[in-house]
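Handout, page 2. Input:
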Amino acid sequence: MEARTETGNKENIMTEEEQKAYNHLKEVYGEVYTTEQLTEKFSVISFMAPYVDVIRKADNVEGTLAFNHRPRFYFNFVEG
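Output:
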């Protein structure tokens, strides 16, 4: 079964496994971003797995997001 999520004008299709991972992260951390959502909402400064340094575009606040590799989701934004 496939689940659909909308990001901007595009529609992404997630497999059942990806949807489960997404839902779990959302329960634990709140906001969860796909790669496309990440690039819409943040400017990426650098990667050092499993973290990415970013600047949130809405207010220019610098911070860090954690990410997992497969499926690739970004979560747990921490300012600083």
